[in-house]
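User: I'm preparing a small set of examples for a lab meeting where we compare how different chains pack in three dimensions. I only have the primary sequence for this one, and I'd like the structure in token form so I can line it up with the others. Please keep the answer compact; I'll paste it straight into my notes.
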Amino acid sequence: MPIQVKICGVADAAALDAAVAGEAAWVGFVFFPRSPRDIAPERAAALAARAPARMGKVAVLVDPDDEAVARAVAAGMTALQLHGDEPPARLAALRRFGLELWKAVPVRTRTDVDAARAYRGVADRIVYDAKTPAGTLPGGMGLRFDWRLLDGVAHPLPWLLSGGLDAESLADAVGITAARAVDVSSGVESAPGVKDVDKVAGFLQAAARL
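Assistant: Understood. Below is the structure token output for the 210-residue chain.
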């Protein structure tokens, strides 16, 4: 089975088209004003409509209220990726919106990895990402955690590896973690929030070789 890739932080047609051409499984749209990748729901809707039906459209949100989730649903998203402090009960409540639910789990220690177990039964996927310093953005900063922390883990759900990935590190990351799905953002950018279509293509080509 090939490595599935999510290109996150897509904000323009060129980046979307590169993700489509390289057969990414998902594209991510960030709905978080503090992020350099923040996108207006109307713009995300136009890009989502441009993507083929086979491609998942993931809204990345941080502790969203119901109104923010409703805007993501209206924009044509197929999944919600929750990147804040959302407890399992919040995900259970969000089931009523009818979208796939992904929960980002920030990782610095093995105990952090184990926190994913709490989301069994309420989330559909886990995204293991690097824990960022207090007061900074919750993701998309190009930080990497020790991939060996995932060695031997009995994962409670299907999962993606995220945090500091790029075309050059992908093979090592997959070799260490046995990940079959990955999430990349800053690793395919020329500057924060600016996707580089050549880097997008290169990352997807690297994934296809694994």
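A couple of notes for your slides: Strands lie at 4-7, 26-30, 56-61, 79-82, 100-107, 125-130, 159-162, 181-184, 189-191, 194-195. Residues 4-208 form a domain with the TIM Barrel fold (CATH 3.20.20.70).

User: Perfect, thanks.
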